[in-house]
Design goal:
This protein is an all-beta fold. It is built from no helices and seven strands. The strands form two sheets. The protein has a four-stranded antiparallel β-sheet with strand order 4-3-6-7, with no helix packed on it. The radius of gyration is 15 Å and the shape is globular. Mean pLDDT is 67; it is low at 1-30 and 116-126. This is Fibronectin type-III domain-containing protein.
């Protein structure tokens, strides 16, 4: 009998953004962003789905067409640009899943400017 995966995911994650001192007049410059979350210890957990939505979307729609299977990265973090099909001001949520395809509840949401430098001193955190 498989354990339910739902109660395990109160993942706290954050988009780690270095302070950005962009070029003059806000010219876009590629930058890396790291999305990190708390260690997940459920032995039935197989991997994570990363969902994304534009920050300006109201309400935000975290749907299957905006879902990326991360597998089980260790440590629990990714370089966002390596996974994202879009750039701009984005929000993220995670779920965990098991081998049977059961998916956990949502993690908290985290938003940030991704893909190019933002305003000087931009910081996103919990």
């Amino acid at each position: 009998m498989m354990r339910r995966i739902v109660p395990m995911l109160f993942i706290a994650f954050s988009l780690l953004l270095p302070a950005c001192a962009g070029p003059p007049h806000g010219s876009p410059t590629p930058v890396d962003r790291t999305l990190a979350w708390d260690t997940y210890t459920d032995p039935d957990g197989t991997g994570f789905f990363l969902y994304w939505a534009p920050e300006a979307e109201n309400p935000r729609q975290y749907i299957d067409t905006r879902k990326i299977d991360l597998g089980r990265p260790f440590p629990e973090q990714i370089i966002v640009k390596d996974f994202m099909p879009a750039r701009g001001s984005l929000c993220f949520k995670l779920t965990a899943y098991d081998a049977a395809g059961n998916e956990s509840a949502w993690s908290n949401e985290d938003c940030g400017y991704f893909g190019f430098t933002g305003p000087s001193g931009l910081v996103v955190g919990p």
